Amino acid sequence: IPPQVVFEILSPGNTPSEMTRKLLFYQRYGVEEYYIYDPQKKELSGFLRNEQVLEEIENLDNWISPRLGIRFTIKETGLELFYPDGQPFTSYTQERERAEAEAQKAQSERERAEAERERAEAEAQKAEAERERAEAERERAEAEAQKAQSERERAEAEAQKAQSEAQKAQSERERAEKLAAKLRELGIDPEQL
User: Fold this and answer.
1) Which of 20-34, 91-105, 172-186 has maximum average pLDDT?
2) First-to-last C-alpha distance (Å) of the chain
3) Distance of alpha carbon 92 from alpha carbon 104, whole angstroms
4) How many angstroms separate the Cα of 71 from the Cα of each of 59, 83, 93, 164?
5) Residue pair 33/6 in contact by the 8 Å Cβ criterion
6) pLDDT band, residue 63 (cuts 50/70/90)
7) Cα separation, 172 vs 191, whole angstroms
8) Which of 10, 54, 74, 168 is 20–30 Å from 189 (CA)?
9) Predicted confidence band at 142 (pLDDT cuts at 50, 70, 90)?
């Protein structure tokens, strides 16, 4: 199967007779479209198959390839090609720059993600430290509450002991007063004893 579309980029070594032979070769083997671009002169020529013959295309400025749908524009800076959607073809340099920009963007995104991961990790550590501090504070408060409870219980025991002592002392006084009263009834002065 012959190629349907051929692009030739001339170099200083290409001769007119060589290019004529190529044109005849492509014509014989059924090429549909044949384009020749001279980057030195910034000139484009093209041929389109009409039955068995490749006929020269008169005006190639804003020409659209019937097979590929790409558009050719000739400017002072050289040949520009556009995809069927109107987007320009990009050069190797432009593609390399785009790839480098994408790589830099990806690297920046990786660095941003790493910084975010480190920030999240620091936040997690901070939260864990805060949780541990709160746990220690809760344990301290619990210990204080237990200590206060023990103090209350000891104070209550002391108060009960004191009350018991007071009741005992009161009971002793009452018994002593009864005894003194009995002695007085018997005519004995308890103060003299």
Assistant:
1) 20-34
2) 150
3) 18
4) 12, 7, 21, 114
5) yes
6) very high
7) 17
8) 168
9) very high
